[in-house]
Structure formats: structure tokens, C-alpha cells
Amino acid sequence: MRTGKTSIIILTLNQFHHTVLCLESIRKYTSEPYELIVVDNGSTDLTVLYLKQQPDVTLICNGHNKGFAAGCNQGLAIATGDNILFLNNDTVVTPNWLTHLLDALHASPDIGMTGPLTNYSSGHQIIPVAYKDLLDLNAFAHEHQIRNAGKMTEVRRLIGFCLLVKRAVLDEVGGFDERYDIGNFEDDDLCLRAAQAGYRLYIANACFIHHVGHVTMNDIQTDEQRNNVQYLMGINRQKAREKWGEDIFDLIYKEDAKLSCCVIAATAAALIRTLDSIKEIADEIIVVDKTGTCDEVASNYNARYISGHSGENKMMQWERAVEKAESPYVLLLDVGEYVSDRMRRKIRILKRSITGDTVGVKVLVEHADTEQNNSQVRFIQKSFPLRYLDNPTGYNENVLISDIEIVGESIIQEKDAIH
After folding, report:
1. Distance of alpha carbon 200 from its chain centroid, rounded?
2. PANTHER family attached here (predicted)?
3. Which residues contact 209 (CB under 8 A, 6 or more apart)?
């Protein structure tokens, strides 16, 4: 659920004309609550004079170019919004742009960042356009948003020319890393940190904004090499490698471990709550139905369905589900068990970080009707013998202990209210 206003943070370094067009489009086409924060990095044209005359702009003036990351962090330090939008000054926004971005950002608690589609970008966000100049931009954007209404695309990387982030995410993972100096790779670095914290990144497909691209970089008056965008990218890619220990794109696009969630079901209502809690982390869902009443629910979630037997114990039910699992890792859930929003993020982190020598992971299993919490192995390699779930010390392989919790409905409600 959306809350509060959006702090729009814009950096300027000359390019007066682009800045005027950007601010005018924001004022004209933004219906959501927002504040404008502009950080000027040493403009020598009319930019600062113009900005000082704008009553709706909070202005920070730097005497020299502090770079993209440092400038954005200055804006972030004084921002008061619950949502933070980093926006280049060489952009022109279109009707409903921020509404689409916010709808995508708050579609799920574990979505941390969203971005638009555009005419100019690296990565996944560029699309072909039919308009020739800005006079035709809104007509194109209107048709685009009709075709893409409500659509979202999950990605590993969003570009910083227009990047909307929950303030709570930045409070957790930090702002832009200022080691990247003038610019390039600071947005990749932020995306990687958010992903490693278990947040998902999405393109809001209905949102389209116009982007000129590289106008500030191309105008930086330094020596010839530092004025070259490709040169800067090479330097900062090396900085990222030194920080992370390997190429940052290898880490960003590293494939997560595939996970099958094996669920024992008894009632349709309880199964719906369980499947809602895992559908975003499961690559495959397998439902073992003890009562024969849950086949329709399983079908609605595209889950594989196994008709179970009420007389079988949970180990026998799980064994039948694991036999059908196609993923190398399996998460086991008993009747009435759920995964909270916060724990879903932690499982996503586990999927990203787990290594092949880990055969099982202990989690804390809590239920409202039990006085004691049980530490059990519930995240396993498919080959893990289920007879060792309660006592993995008898299985001479690598079993990790985690702070992941699997809980019952009343416990989930209580914990989510706290967190």
C-alpha cells in the first residue's frame, strides 16, 4: 500500500534548456504528492539563477562537480518523502508517469525499486519509438500506457536516469557509493545491494519518459580522457570489480538457485494463504492434498497436484512431493504454514547466495498453538534424506543454520505488524 509523498532528486550541471523542460513536465504531469530537490554541481550558465527563482524547488549549490553519487546523496540527506526518485535533468516525463511507477513499486512489500521504459537507455528499459520530436511525445506515451496498463517486468538492473526507490530500502542498504566519482556504475552497485538484501526490481511497463542521454557527461570540461564516457565506464567497472571481488555484471545476472516448494494441504482456505506467501519465491509449487478438496486451488496457482492420503504422516507426504520436484532445492511446508514478507526476502537472499556444498538449511518453525519453537531442516537439496530433517547431525554433510522463520497465521500477523 502506498504511503506519503515522493522526493524527486535532480542533479544539474549546465544544460539549462533541458532542466527547464524537465521541471515543466514534472509540474504539468505529476498528480501524486511530491517535492522537488535540485542539486547543482557547479553550473556556469543560467541554471542556478533560474533554479533560485523557482519557489517549489529546494536547491543545493555545489561550487564544483561532486559527481552523480555524491550529488544524489546530498539530495537524499534532506529528502522528506517515503519514496525517493532519482531523475536526470535531460528527461521529459509524460502523463501518469509517477502513478505508474508508484503502483509498480508498491505492488508487493519486497519490491524495492522501479523504473520506466524510455527511448534511450542501456539495459532492458529501451524500446523503439515512433515519435520524431517532443510535440508527438504525449500521443506516443498515451498509446503506450494503454497497451501496457498494469504490466510489470522483473529485471536484475535498473538505470539511474529515472529510478524510484522506497525510502526504507535506502535506509537499509545505503545510498549511492561515491567511489564512482563523476558517474557510471553507481546505479548498478545500488541495484546489486538491493537485490542481495532480497528486494526485487521491476520495470513499470506503462510508464514511458523521454531521455536525451549523456548530455552532462558529454559537456564535462576536463581532460580529453576523463571526458570520454567509455573511458569513465572502464575505470568505474574496475572500481566495482575491486569492491565486489568479481565483475559486477556477473554478480547482477548471477542465476538464483531454483526452488520447488512442497506443500501439504488440508483445506482450501489455508492453502490459499500458504501459496500466496510463496508464489513469488517458488520456481515450482507441488501440493500434496490430504483431503482431496484442494485441487482447484492448486490449479489456480499453476501448482503440480498430488492426491494424498489422510492416513499418511507428513514425512510420507513430503517424500512423494520431493520425488516429483524438478528443482535442485526444495522448501518443505506443512499444513497451515506460511512465509512472512520479511522471511520471503530472506529466502530470496538464500537462493542467491547458497552454494552447491550446502545440502540443507535449518529454519525456525513457529506455530501459534505451540509453546516451543523448533529448529528444523526445511530448505534442502533434493537428494537430502528426509529422515534426517529433525536430526541432521546424523547426516555427515554441510547443513547451515539460518534465521529464517516459517510460522502460522497468527504469528505472521503479529510479526508483520512489528516489522
Report:
1. 2
2. RHAMNOSYLTRANSFERASE WBBL (PTHR43179:SF7)
3. 91, 92, 93, 94, 97, 116, 118, 162
Please give the pLDDT value at position 414: 36
Helix, strand or coil for residue 408?
Answer: coil
Is residue 351 within 8 A of residue 259, CB to CB? The reply is yes
Amino acid occupying residue 176: F
Q: What is the pTM of this model?
A: 0.89
Determine the Cα–Cα distance for residues 99 and 247; give it in Å rounded to an integer.
Answer: 35
Read off the pLDDT of each residue in 366-386 and give the average, rounded to a whole number. 81
User: Of 41 and 397, which is predicted with more confidence?
Assistant: 41
Cell triple for 397: 554433510
Cα–Cα–Cα angle for 133, 68, 104, rounded to 5 degrees: 65
Cβ within 8 Å of residue 221, ≥6 positions away: 227
Asked if 225 and 248 touch (Cβ cutoff 8 Å), the reply is no
Q: How far apart are CA 264 and CA 269, in angstroms?
A: 13
pLDDT of residue 395: 77
Give the model confidence (pLDDT) of 190-218 as tens digits: 999 999 999 999 999 999 999 998 655 55
What pLDDT, on a 0 to 100 scale, did the predictor assign at position 374? 79
In which residue are the cell numbers 498494469 written? 150
What is the pLDDT averaged over residues 380-387?
92
Split at pLDDT 50, 70, 90, the class of 274 is very high
Domains of the chain, CATH where assigned = 6-252 (3.90.550.10), 259-418 (3.90.550.10)
Q: Answer for the pair 364, 406: CB distance below 8 angstroms, yes or no.
A: yes
Q: For 30-179, where are the alpha helices, taking DSSP H only?
A: 47-52, 68-78, 97-105, 137-147, 167-173
* C-alpha to C-alpha distance for 19 and 23, rounded to whole angstroms: 6
Q: At 238, list the grid cell.
A: 574496475
